[in-house]
Write a structure and sequence with these properties.
N_methyl_site; cell membrane; T2SS_protein-GspH; membrane; four-stranded antiparallel beta sheet; single chain; 2 helices; transmembrane; about 180 residues; alpha+beta; minor pseudopilin epsh fold
Length: about 180
């Protein structure tokens, strides 16, 4: 008879627990989205380089002129054309394949047939323009292996490589290497 109706609702502790759980979920989602920025950027610039290398190989065949790509110590790369009249490599003229730059936090190592062994294989930007990889008008190219990785994740390496006969092949981190065995 004199009993008050029971109150329904959430207690302050219940509301605080819900807010803490929601806050944790939001922070986890934010870390997953934000932490992958460098990985996504590295994948995108590697994809761009790979596609440009394929285009250079195709252009060498279509125009019957040798083309090359040169990598610099500051993570820049540029495409070169062999000038037959001057018998030297010259930068790709305007309107040709653009060069590019890998992120400053990326590491790069190139091993090609012409390397004297070890090291990064990167060139000095003030030195004579000699490409690390040559795309011949015959459709062949310099055998090479180009490795690109994020300094903080050295085990996640992007590789662009060719045996010299087949065009460039891109393997992403996590791709299983082809052992060539049956």
């Amino acid at each position: 008879m004199g009993r008050a109706p029971s109150q329904r609702g959430f207690t302050l502790i219940e509301l605080m627990v819900v807010l803490v759980v929601v806050g944790l979920l939001i922070s986890l989602v934010g870390m997953n989205i934000g932490g992958g920025g460098e990985r996504r950027e590295l994948t995108e610039v590697t994809r761009t380089l790979y596609l440009r290398m394929q285009a250079a190989a195709d252009e060498a065949v279509l125009t019957s002129r040798e083309m090359g790509v040169r990598f610099e110590e500051d993570n820049r790369y540029r495409f070169l054309v062999f000038d037959r009249d001057e018998a030297e490599w010259v930068p790709e003229p305007r309107g040709g394949l653009p060069g590019g730059r890998l992120p400053k936090w990326a590491e790069i190592e190139i091993q090609s047939e012409g390397d004297s062994g070890g090291g990064t294989g990167l060139g000095d930007s003030d030195a004579e323009l000699i490409p690390h990889i040559v795309f011949f008008s015959s459709g062949q190219m310099t055998p090479f292996e180009l490795s690109i990785w994020w300094r903080k994740q050295q085990e996640a390496v992007h590789r662009i490589q060719s045996d010299g006969v087949n065009g460039p092949d891109w393997s992403r981190p996590g791709d299983e290497p082809d052992s060539g065995e049956l």
